[in-house]
Design goal:
The complex is a heterodimer of chains A (365) and B (392). Chain A has 365 residues and is mainly α. In chain A, helix 1 crosses helix 7 (143-166), helix 2 packs across helix 10 (218-244) and helix 12 runs antiparallel to helix 13. Chain A is 74% helix and 0% strand. Chain A contains 15 helices and no strands. Chain B has 392 residues and is α/β, with parallel strands linked by helices. Chain B has 13 helices and 14 strands. Chain B has helices at 2-17, 58-62, 85-91, 112-115, 120-130, 147-150, 161-170, 184-192, 231-240, 302-331, 338-345, 347-353, 363-366; strands at 28-41, 47-56, 75-82, 99-101, 107-111, 139-144, 182-183, 197-205, 208-218, 223-229, 246-252, 255-271, 279-293, 368-379. In chain B, strand 1 (28-41) and strand 2 form a beta hairpin. Chain B is globular and about 100 Å long. The chains are: A mainly alpha (365), B alpha/beta (392). Chain A binds chain B through residues 42, 116-123, 126, 175, 178-179, 182, 244-245, 247-248, 251, 258, 261-262, and chain B through 20-21, 132, 135-137, 185, 188-189, 192-193, 340, 343-345, 347.
Chain lengths: 365, 392
């Protein structure tokens, strides 16, 4: 078999701009309005989403800045110069574990949703396996290919999201917005926590910035990229509130999908919009999952440089599958999900601070 | 290498050709209307519910006079009795060769026996909200009489009773005495919130069905507490505002005159500073035309016009006052949405009174409602008068 080879394994910083939103937009937003609405009053959740977004953007900027200050060096390389090789290997390995578990979580969640809405009779195991095999196929090819897929899919994802918002305008009821600012302080904090978890997409920055050709502008691009999901999530959340009201939004499992379901395009051109919505959204989730899987591969590969890429893929694949199939029901999946969310945010903050402080102390440039 | 690839691709054919969820379209039975009736109360306090589903028979729909000219119904109603709506829809599998598909369900009719039971109504609707196959656009209505019979009415103009009813509840544009259809998504919110509400009410008379009232529901226990129709329903619509068409009968100089409303707006201001005497002031602005008159006076007289407008205003105030009084005294529930306004605009006051609004101390019934209307007659139609004064 002959594979198409791209000129070099380098990307431009514009591709980071696209990769960040492609990575963040995925399953999270399908249920996010529910978790935000259930802890805030009326439409107050946007405050939490905005504050959460600002926090995420700050973290994104610091991670990108740190990575970009070591151009063309892989994470393990520059981490080694800062905190010695063994510690750097441990840090990288933890990233690999994290990326693997995110992959399995994504595979499991997409299978659950597909089973609920589309394929009632097909077992979750089969849906997951099919999806995972597709991911493996994507990752086995060139990394640059993934970035091109991102650039190709993201416009469709954004257009579909825009359609969901625009064509629901005639269901809007402005009365659902009030009373404003009646949420308790702890409600806002809880909301900020949930929104930061759903925005979490820093992992890719640690690894992908190292293959950017000229990483000078990269932090700016990463921040710009991060703004896209923040704005999109706030709009989608407000659409849910305006259409359903707070009480219903907080009782729907996937409010964003319900939005797509009630949508009617004037003239009856498309009555079942949710089928199109699913197709496009599965593309978005595919991008997210393919990138996490690729990062798991990249991280492991950088520790064990003499093991071939395909071998690494076939080691991680089954592990991700087994982890994904382990939770028995929806509650366990969501516990697993929030555990992974917390750990990924906390771990990134921890690694950033660690590398930053030690680099300052040891004056590594 | 080549041979193994060939084997592999043959093997994948086995996996790719099948589809777990395939179901031929001619094996599906599309349900377009469902009705729920009370079948009986068991001794353990549980209920028996009858679910009637209306299946479409597409063949008879397009070609109703097959079989030697004898008319064939384009639908088939199947009823089954059990305890939960989901169980019932599964039981239906045993009664027909078709697999019920609820994706095209248009209407859900609930008999008032179920609606009047506090425990049953919300529980029985749950199945229809939870199932992903059901869409949130299903129109919900209450029927006086058995829902089963409503789904079985005979109509000449429309082969499917469900679609007939579906159109009836949508034809509210021209009338002040009907409300907007309520969709199950909206009902979901009504059930979750504690505000009282109203659902369209169908009345069965012999072989026909008519829609001329609403069923009023208590928001907390979610059961029907009464029905409102006629002038009281007009009052409800006028309070809610947002009317684009409707008519009003009134008398002037002992003669009947009809005012056709082209647009009406309402604005409601609430002062809840004193919980024991909440002051609600409603002002209603209408615009319209004279559609019909029985008298013979010229309408092109400013003084007479002013008098007409004053009469219309008085009539509106009288209707609305009666509606509110009736709600305060008879049903003791606020289905006008005053509680929504309190919650949205006066949240601090609402927190204090929410448990005692239309429950507990019944503060709603003690509140003072002040109505003021402002009517404008824009045009008088194409003729000034159709008879001369000599007729009087």
């Amino acid at each position: 078999m002959k594979r198409f080879e791209y000129a070099d394994e380098k990307i431009s910083d514009k591709q980071i701009l696209v990769a960040v939103p492609s990575f963040v937009i995925g399953i999270g937003i399908l249920s996010l309005p529910q978790s935000i609405a259930s802890i805030t009053m009326a439409s107050d959740g946007w405050v939490s989403l905005l504050i959460g977004g600002v926090i995420t953007i700050i973290i994104t900027w610091s991670v990108a800045k740190l990575s970009a200050s070591f151009p063309h060096q892989s994470f393990i390389n520059y981490a080694s110069t800062i905190v010695t090789r063994p510690i750097a290997s441990v840090l990288t390995f933890l990233f690999a574990i994290q990326a693997t578990s995110i992959t399995s979580l994504q595979v499991r969640q997409i299978a659950d949703i597909a089973k609920h809405y589309l394929l009632k009779e097909t077992p979750v195991e089969i849906i997951s396996l099919t999806f995972l095999l597709l991911i493996i196929y994507a990752v086995a090819g060139s990394r640059i290919g993934l970035f091109r897929l991102n650039t190709m899919f993201l416009p469709f994802v954004l257009i579909v999201a825009a359609i969901v918002i625009v064509f629901n305008i005639n269901w809007f009821d402005l009365a659902f917005l009030s009373p404003t600012f009646e949420t308790s302080f702890s409600g806002y904090i809880e909301g900020v926590k949930n929104s930061v978890l759903s925005y979490a997409g820093f992992t890719i920055l640690w690894f992908y910035i190292t293959i950017v050709k000229e990483p000078k502008q990269t932090p700016k691009m990463a921040v710009l990229g991060m703004c896209i999901p923040v704005v999109l999530y706030i709009f989608l959340y407000l659409t849910c509130i305006l259409v359903f009201g707070n009480s219903v939004t907080s009782n729907l499992q996937y409010p964003t999908i319900e939005l797509a379901k009630i949508l009617e395009i004037p003239g009856g051109i498309l009555e079942r919009f949710e089928s199109l919505f699913f197709v496009i959204w599965i593309m978005a989730i595919f991008n997210t999952t393919a990138m996490t899987f690729d990062i798991a591969v990249l991280a492991l590969h950088s520790i064990f440089a003499n093991v071939g890429k395909m071998k690494v893929i076939f080691i991680i694949g089954p592990i991700a599958y087994v982890i994904g199939m382990y939770p028995q029901d929806l509650v366990q999946v969501s516990i697993f999900g929030s555990f992974i969310g917390y750990s990924s945010v906390l771990y990134t903050v921890f690694v950033t601070l660690l590398l930053f402080v030690i680099a300052k102390i040891r004056r590594v440039k | 290498m080549k041979r193994s690839l060939l084997l592999l691709s043959c093997f994948t054919l086995l996996l790719l050709a099948g589809c777990w969820d395939e179901l031929p379209i001619d094996e599906r039975g599309f349900v377009i209307g469902s009705g729920l009736d009370m079948a009986g109360k068991n001794t353990e306090g549980t209920y028996d519910i009858t679910l009637t589903s209306q299946f479409v028979i597409p063949g008879n729909l397009s070609n109703p006079t097959q079989n030697g000219g004898r008319e064939q119904a384009a639908f088939k109603n199947i009823s089954t009795t059990g305890q939960s709506s989901f169980q019932l829809s599964r039981q239906m599998l045993g009664l027909t060769n078709l697999i019920p598909n609820y994706e095209h369900l248009k209407i859900l009719i609930i008999s008032s026996d179920i609606a009047r039971d506090p425990k049953l109504f919300s529980s029985i609707v749950d199945g229809f909200i939870r199932d992903h196959e059901m869409r949130r656009g299903i129109k919900v209505m209450v029927s006086e009489g058995d829902a089963k019979d409503v789904l079985n009415i005979k109509t000449e103009t429309e082969p499917l009773p469900s679609l007939f009813i579906n159109t009836i509840v949508e034809n509210n544009v021209k009338s002040l005495e009907l409300i907007e259809p309520v969709r199950i998504g909206q009902l979901h919110r009504y059930l979750l919130d504690e505000h009282s509400y109203a659902l369209p009410l169908l009345t069965l008379s012999k072989d026909n069905v008519s829609y001329e009232g609403v069923a009023v529901f208590d928001g907390k226990s979610d059961h029907q507490v009464g029905t409102v129709s006629g002038d009281d329903l007009k009052g409800l619509r006028l309070i809610k505002g947002n009317i684009s068409n409707g008519m009003l009968l009134f008398h002037i100089d002992g003669q009947l005159m009809i005012y056709e409303i082209n647009a009406a707006k309402s604005s409601i201001k609430i002062n809840a500073a004193n919980p024991d005497n909440v002051k609600i002031s409603i002002s209603i602005d209408t615009e319209g035309a004279i559609a019909e008159m029985f008298g013979g006076r010229s309408l092109l007289d400013q003084a007479y016009m002013n008098e007409i407008e004053k009469q219309i205003e008085e009539k509106i105030e009288q209707i609305v006052n009666h509606t509110v009084e009736n709600a305060q005294q008879e049903f003791e529930v606020d289905f006008f949405g005053f509680s929504n306004i309190l919650k949205e605009k006066h949240y601090d006051d609402w927190k204090k009174i929410k448990d005692n609004w239309d429950h507990g101390d019944k503060l709603f019934s003690k509140s003072t409602v002040d109505v003021s209307a402002n009517a404008i007659v824009r045009t008088i139609g194409s003729s000034d008068k159709a008879k001369d004064k000599g007729m009087e």
